[in-house]
Amino acid sequence: MDNNYALYKTMLIIRRFEERLLAEFSAGKLVGTTHAYIGQEADAAGIFSVTDPDDVVFSSHRCHGHFLAYGGEPYRLAAELMGKSTGLVGGRGGSQHIQWRNFYSNGIQGGIVPVATGMALAEKVHQNGKITLVFIGDGTLGEGALYESLNLAALWRLPILFVLENNGYAQTTPVEEGVSGSMAGRFTAFGIQVWECNTTDVLEIRSTAQEAVRHVRSEVKPGCLILHTYRFSAHSKGDDLRSPEELTRIHAFDPIKLHSHRLTDEERFKAETEVMAIVDDAFVRAEADLTASLNATG
Ligand SMILES: Cc1ncc(C[n+]2csc(CCOP(=O)(O)OP(=O)(O)O)c2C)c(N)n1
Ligand SMILES: [Mg+2]
To answer: Per the confidence metrics, is the pTM higher than 0.90?
Structure first.
């Protein structure tokens, strides 16, 4: 019961935060670019409900959902998106390049995977029981640095979980046109065990993630979690070639609607009220903050 409410609230924070973010973008209040996670919320909510607070996380251009599920503060993220000095990295990273506690993100596809692998080595040497997670998309399977990392992670038995979120597209390229052969086979070829989920049900994702996380932590070995999912919003801002029929079809897999039936009307109302207040406070406070000075240091 408590778990169901917490998972729902995490997914709702991501959804409402990003709906607000897209509206603020359209109103010209944000700078740079952005990539919304709307539709994929069950992945982040499920995974971060079974990780430890000190685990190390590396994310991609589509990082907001991962960050919020990790426990990041919506206000600091909103301030970062607005280029404010109170933002996560002083307003200089924007949407794709954020850092807070053990969470890092980078917009270069696959570029962060060798960094994450090195971090997993460092944490293994420190023998502190932390695992490292690194998120990639289906389109990032074409990056060579990924395979060098898989090789070393397997050879050196590094405690790292590669999380592959297959949302079916790399920008506007469908996965069938960008990825050959088997996704799982790309990991098993290096002797890395794979867990795979073809669902947007947060409870199923959570229990599969739990097994994968347990394996990586207790066996001190790499693992791979493949999550087949759906991206509801455009790749970034407006770049979407999908037909209205396809968009209608995939909305049937809305993870929030799917999970909402496990809550009472009162619980759904409470979650919605609390989340709307958090998101509104985040954007209103961030807007009032000072803009980052471009030539400041530190
Ligand atoms: C090395 C590199 N090439 C191209 C880009 C531009 N780019 C940003 S996201 C993206 C598609 C990524 O697709 P995928 O890995 O499936 O992630 P998704 O956007 O679907 O979450 C591209 C081509 C980039 N950021 N880095
Ligand atoms: Mg993709």
So the answer is: yes
